[in-house]
Amino acid sequence: AFDKKHKACLEHIAVDADAAFENAMIWRGDGGGRRARHCEAMAIFALGHMEEAAERLDTLAQSADAGTNLMRADFYAEAANFWLMADKPSQAYASTSAGLKLRADHIDLRIARARAYALQGRYDYAETDLTSALVYDPAHAAALRYRADARLEQGKLGSALTDIESSLAADPDSLETALLRGRIKEAVRKSEPATEPAEETKEPPSP
User: Fold this and answer.
1) What is the spatial distance between Cα 144 and Cα 139, in angstroms, rounded to a whole number?
2) Which of 150, 165, 196, 207 has its C-alpha lying 20 to 30 A from 71's C-alpha?
């Protein structure tokens, strides 16, 4: 899906997002199609316009020339992540649900929808989506971490601890995972009943 010109356009964003956007518009005018429009959206995101970039990616995913169902689902996943960054969980939910109708096995879409649920406080729904994602990849570090978080929020401390340990085993260098493990362990510690001090045995008084 990524030809050389598309790759070069995306790489140019890191160097000069304004110029990359201008070049992508020219390329689109010259018949660049979905690749040019995708580069435009990514440049707009790099310029700080997250919502506009997300809207463009949603529109691209729905267009006649968006490509295969997997390509469309990928565009929806990118849109959803931009909506999440913009703190727009409802729009992220719409993007992910549309993408999952095309590819039910798209793990990134399931994770993004779970995150949208979590932002709305619907942690049980988030857990369900993440469990579905883990059916396709049981050792997916991010899915395990997000499910651990969702379970923590629901007070499922034992299963949350199991998930976070599995996530850390899959990605030992993740600082985010290590921090969440600390939160979960602290929650477990606080949930444990305090032990009563042993009563002192009193000697009977001397006669």
Assistant:
1) 7
2) 150
Q: CA of 163: how far to CAs of 64, 138, 170, 186, in Å?
A: 41, 11, 11, 15
Buried b (16+ CB within 10 A) or exposed e, 89-113: bebbbbbbebbbebbeebbbbbbbb
Q: Which residues of the chain have pLDDT under 50?
A: 1
Residue 204 has a CB neighbour count (10 Å cut-off) of 5
Q: How far apart are CA 63 and CA 99, in angstroms?
A: 13
Name every residue whose Cβ is closer than 8 Å to that of residue 148 and which is 6 or more positions away in sequence. Answer: 160, 161, 163, 164, 167, 180, 184
Place of tokens 């362990």: 185
- Residues 90, 2, 49, 176: what is their CA dihedral angle, to the nearest 10 degrees? 70
Residue 186 token pair: 């602290």
**Contact, 127 vs 154, CB < 8 A?**
yes
Compute how many other C-beta atoms are within 10 angstroms of the C-beta atom of residue 155.
10
The helix/strand/coil state of 138 is: coil
In tens, the pLDDT along 72-124 reads 999 999 999 999 999 999 999 999 999 999 999 999 999 999 999 999 999 99
